[in-house]
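== Item description ==
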Amino acid sequence: MTIEKVRKTVREIAPYEWEASSAAIAKRFGLRENEVKRFDTNTSPFQAQFEIDESGLNEYPDPSYAELSQAIAEYVGCDAKRVVVGAGADEILEVIAKTFVDNGDSAVVSTPTYSMYRIVVEQMGGRALSVPRESDFSLDNRKLIEASIGAKAVFVCNPNNPTGNAAPLEKIKELCEAAQTPVVVDEAYYEFCGETAVNEKNAIVVRTFSKAFSLAGARVGYAVASEEIAAEMNKVRPPNSVSALSVRLALKSLEKQNQARMRENVVKTISERERLRREFEKLGLLVYPSQTNFLLVKFESEDAAQRVFESLLARGMVARNFSRKISGCLRFTVRSPSDDDLLVSAIKEVFEK
């Protein structure tokens, strides 16, 4: 079979880019795998602290995810009919693209941002129209609203990845009211900022258990939309993509005592984020404002950022390299104080060479 049989759309997509696995990095630099520190994934340094029932795994989970949808609805404060569950926020984004985008359609993406918005649109044969953010990374609502005319959706990450800043809710409300198409508001980092668009007309809010809830490995995400849109999304959602174990983990994490622990961990992460910010600033680095669990840091040039990135990688510290997309910038996940201290010391060593 030749490559020509692959859909032209697929062949032409620029794939999602990520760093090598921890095992591959450890092997490359002669490290033990547990010595590799992932500052690139925006996951929680805290482990989920609960046990789940592992029986009945010979059967499929309830394909409607009714129990989990109800628990999410109670957490969010909405009707369960508005909830769509998927295997991580990424699958939810794919479901949204399947629901709205036909071959040749366009969707608007506020950039720089999470590259999966572009990818899910292009997978459906659509075109992702990039609307650059302002110089301070704030939303350019005027251009977004103009671009929404004739488009099938607008994708906005709030707080935004990789820049870390959050748009005021008033600005999101203005966009939702004026856009000529549904506005997908990715709130993967909602728990770190506390503002949400779930009650905004025309909004489809996307969230995940991967960040604040410490369940990145379980792959559970969800959308909150109008009942009518949620029903349409459920038509194209795979029926059993979220495993029974993952459903149980998500349900457990939404129990009151575990929600309380999650919120305590969020407070600790925010405190550590601000401490890490101060340490970066002591090194003379520009650190952009963040309402997430990561920091975007600007170095003096693309070459300087690349040098730091490569030096850190050789030490088993994996940063997210945006130096060519956002000139001279690396993104760092906030980890434990001890890990963060190792990071700062390593960057200082690079500077001193």
Observations:
- The chain has a mean pLDDT of 96.
